[in-house]
Amino acid sequence: MNKQQWLSQIKEDILEPQLEICDPHHHLWDHPNNRYMFDELMADLTSGHNVQTTVYMECGSMYRADGPQALRPVGETEFVNGVAEMSASGLHGNPRVCASIVGFADLADGNTVEETLDGHINASSRFVGIRHASGWDANEEIKNSHTKPTEGLLGNRKFRSGFAELAKRNLVFDAWLYHPQIPELTDLAHSFPEQPIVFDHFGGPLGIGPYAGKRDEIFKYWKGVIAKLAECDNVFAKLGGLVMPVNGFGFHKRDRPAASLELAEATREYYLYMIEQFGPKRCMFESNFPVDKASCSYAVLWNSFKRITSDFSDSEKAALYRDTAIQIYRVN
């Protein structure tokens, strides 16, 4: 049974189908036996929910094959901008995909960071920010981020020097890390209070390797460090990326994927605590596709979000599903 057949075992009616959505976090890639390009993305986006726009998040795709090493990540922005132009033509209908683009620059490379940032800016008017993932753990069972970060990257002097260049260019910073590293991000946010920071995927609460079987203990720790991070007014929270294999729920190992009710019940306390701490105007739901596609379909994932927010007001839902993302990423 292939992945699509596995996912298609669960079919649900779309909840609140008119609710307008900006999906602020998805990828595109063409890996061997793992293709997720425009056609695959559009199939998910048009599977029932009212997704109007999306934000592309860097993932090391389509770098330039030659030229200066520092400018090779600009190839990703060039590629994604082409996808955005194709979507904006209207020939493929709605939604408008990749309306804003977040790319990669090695912020710890003091010799080239300015050149890389300016290269992205020159490559596309849709370019709005940088993600330099810092997910690192000492245990070999935890896969560190694709950017191959060093321990304590967010506190590194060279990294912070490059980080300071973002504000000069009105760029947002996306932070992807694991839950033991959240205090490092809090320190960074305190040190740069004017720099908008988007906190991805709940800070990656781990549930595999040495963290398996410790969900209650980790959740208690996570709540404490989240409360301190939320005190930083310049930090905004992405609500998603919580059913990746690294989170330890194990949905990807089952004969049938989870339905939205089960997803909501398993993850609800994380979402509600995050919204309580940051407030709806600093939170945004995200798909993190195709990474979270390991556990469920696009339609089921967004249904699970809507179950969690079923009692929220219309204005709260507007912020969570559309307005916060549009504001932070300057989505046109």
Protein topology:
Elements: H1 3-7, E1 20-26, E2 29-31, E3 34-36, H2 38-45, E4 50-57, H3 74-88, E5 96-103, H4 113-123, E6 127-131, H5 157-168, E7 172-175, H6 182-191, E8 197-199, H7 215-230, E9 235-239, H8 260-278, E10 283-285, H9 298-308, H10 314-328
Parallel strand pairs: 1-4, 4-5, 5-6, 6-7, 7-8, 8-9, 9-10
Antiparallel strand pairs: 2-3
Helix pairs in contact: 3-4, 6-7, 7-8, 8-9
Can you characterise this structure?
With 332 residues, the chain is of the alpha/beta class. It has one domain: TIM Barrel (Alpha-Beta Barrel). The chain contains ten helices and ten strands. It has helices at 3-7, 38-45, 74-88, 113-123, 157-168, 182-191, 215-230, 260-278, 298-308, 314-328; strands at 20-26, 29-31, 34-36, 50-57, 96-103, 127-131, 172-175, 197-199, 235-239, 283-285. The strands form two sheets. The chain has an eight-stranded parallel sheet with strand order 1-4-5-6-7-8-9-10. A hairpin with a 2-residue loop joins strand 2 and strand 3. Helix 3 (74-88) packs parallel to helix 4 (113-123), helix 7 runs parallel beside helix 8 (260-278) and helix 8 (260-278) packs across helix 9 (298-308). It starts with a helix and ends with a helix. The model has no long low-confidence stretch (mean pLDDT 97).
